[in-house]
Amino acid sequence: MTTGTGNIVAPLPFPTAARRELADGQLRANLRRATHTIRDKRLRVVGEVPDWPALRRSGAAIKDDVLARLPELLEQFEAAATAAGATVHWARDATEACTLVTELVQRTGSTEVVKVKSMATQEIGLNEALAEVGIEAVETDLAELIVQLADDTPSHILVPAIHYNRRQIRDIFASRMPGVDLDKLTDDPPALAEAARRHLRAKFLSAKVAISGANFAVAETGTLVVVESEGNGRMCLTLPETLISVVGVEKLLPTFRDLEVFLQLLPRSSTGERMNPYTSLWTGVTPGDGPQTLHIVLVDNGRTETLADPVGRQALRCIRCSACLNVCPVYERVGGHAYGSVYPGPIGAILSPQMTGPDAGANRTLPYASTLCGACFDACPVRIDIPEVLVHLRQRGVDARRGRPSAERTAMRALAWTMRDRRRYAAALRAARRGAAPLRLVTGARGQVRRLPWPLSAWTASRDAPLPAGRTFRDWWAGRDRTGGEGTGGDRG
Amino acid sequence: MGTVDRSARDEILARIRAVRPDEPVSVPREYRTGPVAGGTVGEPGEAEAAALDGELIELLVDRLVDYRATVRRCAPQDVPGALAELLGEVPTVVVPPGAPVRWLSAYLGRIRRDGDPEPLTVADLDAPGVAVVTGCAVAIAQTGTLLLDGAPDQGRRLLSLVPDHHLCVVRAGQVVGGVPEALARLADPTRPTTLVSGPSATSDIELDRVEGVHGPRRLDVLVVTD
Ligand code: SF4
């Protein structure tokens, strides 16, 4: 079975990466404010829906039904989308998906494409692949644009530039945005949004090709759905001649009616709004309205591998709302970059290692990026029992190494034993640091503790590799796929 | 793309067949799919239905105002006056092919109808001082959402996207309680459909909400009641 590749491989063991991020006070303050603001809003709008528990149960069951009938539903989707005028392509992994999309863009003759924020295209490393053949991919979501102009990577699924404040964003625009009007550019958010509007409007009006993901794909009708706020999605989905949509195979819903559940669950869980400003639904091509050429690329990239695990497969229900990030005490402290994958936080900790298999990079350490407090499960709109999967993956990681004697195996086993059930773990935490918050265990009093107390000490002792000398974590992370190091998924088309 | 590589398709489908769960799943649907207003749930009788309609409109207006849309209410005969007032000094108004002529009978500026004689270009729509007036397919009270499905009084998607000012006319009979009723009302779900909830917005900079990025920065809603 082919495993997933691309930007889903943690290059560093989680504690090592976390320690680096913890030193960034700005990041921590921003994250804390962001996660708390969004989660308070979420609680308010979820509280006004009396049938929320029933919606969650339906959402989980619909997704489980999709996983049980996935081959039939994919064929049904392909047939419906094709009948409506789309061309459906299939990609086994990130490399294949990038190659496919690159060829499709090259065929149009365009050297610039506009993009709607999409986790799937970040996962497969599409922008990098396009850049290699001289095609510029312009991110049009404001936060993605900030991150792209800064040559950085997103730190949150939903608010990717949350680690920058307004002054920093102004400076990024001033130095990196071509043709920006410096006289009008202040650090006032409306002025910054206006600068982005002007910069991108020219791109929207001239672009011939757009690339999107999809939040949902309806098998019954062949319909794709994109949920967004700014209108950049509508621009990309409406104005260009050619649209290429990259969609994970698990994004399916059986029927159009199922959207009635997910269009309630997603906005409230995600941005804490009753409804996001814009949702676009389109089916194939419509003469005289929107792109006249539509390519849909269905991507596996390790999803099958994930589906094979009866406990872990529930991670494929995920609708990428990021509610679990916002309630996670670990994420709040370390931020998205520490997880080394485009999927951060609790969902990343169970999704990345399953998609790649445990031997990719340091992904086997990701299931330990949790205190098993259970807040993620309570917040999850599709009832993914993340703590259950975390414990399961820890155990699986240890079992896989059985018979291969190594210091690490012993360490992982000690850790797994400790973390296998919540009570034992809680006791270890208490022993470790009386009365302190769980994360103090990893970070220490000044965020610099190098070892965990027994029984976790063996693990830190063996995994706690220092950063490569003379390079920052960001540099190293950004450059890792070009150096061809191990576990990089360095397979860009 | 002339040919599609079938081997990836067949391999992925075979892999999934080999590992997927074999238990069939039954999907419970105990959530609300019927009328709702202000959080109440239930099947209304005739008297309640009339009261409910009033409540739904109150709720819709409340939600739209919360998104910082401009909301006006008027009787059917007052639509032209109300629209002219909302448009104020706007020099050019764009309308979809099937928008009722009387809507703009009191408006004094220039009116351009899409497809009459030619389809409007993006440059036409992007010109300064252009507003667009459309109807909608259905509106959701609970979430303050307008659904546009490309019917003749709504037109192509770019009409309600590129101009910086969108006015939407909602008839009382188009207002439903929640998301399930609204989706069930769509005549053809495979038509390009857009759900609009307030003006375009971003919270990407320090979570400060800024109205208006790429979609229309001003959204006016005219609710027509008897
Ligand atoms: S795991 Fe659940 S809470 Fe987390 S992003 Fe996915 S759907 Fe949202």
TrEMBL record, chain A:
Domain 4Fe-4S ferredoxin-type, chain residue ranges per copy: 315-384
Domain of life of the native organism: Bacteria
A Pfam family annotated for this UniProt entry: LutB_C
Domain LUD: 74-299
Family matches, as Gene3D superfamilies: Alpha-helical ferredoxin, NagB/RpiA/CoA transferase-like
Keyword Iron among record annotations: yes
InterPro entries assigned: 4Fe4S_Fe-S-bd (IPR017896), 4Fe4S_Fe_S_CS (IPR017900), FTHF_cligase-like_sf (IPR024185), Helical_ferredxn (IPR009051), LUD_dom (IPR003741), LutB/LldF (IPR004452), LutB_C (IPR024569), NagB/RpiA_transferase-like (IPR037171)
Residue stretches making up the Lactate utilization protein B C-terminal domain: 402-480
Record's protein name: Iron-sulfur cluster-binding protein
Keywords from the named record: 4Fe-4S, Electron transport, Iron, Iron-sulfur, Metal-binding, Repeat, Transport
Automatic annotation (TrEMBL), chain B:
Parts forming coiled coils: none
Xref: Gene3D superfamilies: NagB/RpiA/CoA transferase-like
Domain LUD per the UniProt entry, residue ranges: 133-224
Matches recorded under Pfam families: LUD_dom
Disordered: annotated segments: 25-44
Name the UniProt record assigns to this protein: LUD domain-containing protein
